[in-house]
């Protein structure tokens, strides 16, 4: 949306004014690691959901969400082990939270698209842009470093995930965990 793009542009201008150039490299490393982990975590699930839905009009959301939960546990365990070896706890904790919540956020947004819930989809994306702008600018203004931007992105993703998960599960808050089992994970792996 135009609002989200405008907030992103404004965030970039403000952050380059407040952060030293070497700190921007730390932020880029964070984003690169997150992108790599999300590739393994999502495993093309969001694309698969769209493909199957468009071909067969079948929604595999529950199976994909179950697979994502189990894969998250495996990959997050590996990230914790890497964090123990490298002793970069704050960085790894932020990678874990941002990646995990971003993966679930992506799957829920894909479900909104499939169900043609355009208003909910656009409100969610715009809300994330606004929350990200406010938390990142505030934290960077206070601390004047790249870690503040990373924490700002993680806090933003956590807040928007909690809001999205709450709205998604209004009737039954434990619906996401209901189908968590190995049989559903095998079904998830067979989808690919």
Polypeptide structure, described:
With 192 residues, the chain is mainly α. 86% of the residues lie in helices and 0% in strands. The protein contains nine helices and no strands. The chain has helices spanning 2-18, 21-42, 45-56, 61-86, 89-114, 118-143, 146-168, 175-178, 182-190. The radius of gyration is 18 Å and the shape is globular. The mean pLDDT is 80.
Topology:
Elements (H helix, E strand, L loop, with lengths): L1 H17 L2 H22 L2 H12 L4 H26 L2 H26 L3 H26 L2 H23 L6 H4 L3 H9 L2
Helix pairs in contact: 1-6, 2-4, 2-5, 2-7, 3-5, 4-5, 4-9, 5-7, 6-7
Name a few traits of the molecule.
192 residues; mainly alpha; 9 helices; globular
Task: Return Rg in Å.
Answer: 18 Å
Along the chain, the helix and strand elements come as: HHHHHHHHH
What share of residues are in beta strands? under 5%
Q: Give the overall shape.
A: globular
Number of strands: 0
SS-derived structural category: mainly alpha
Low-confidence stretches: none
Distinct helical segment count: 9
**What is the typical, i.e. mean, pLDDT?**
80
**Can you summarize the main beta sheet?**
none
Distance between the termini: 32 Å
- Helical content band: over 70%
Oligomer: single chain
Question: Could you give a short description of this structure?
Answer:
The chain is mainly α and 192 residues long. It is built from 9 helices and no strands.
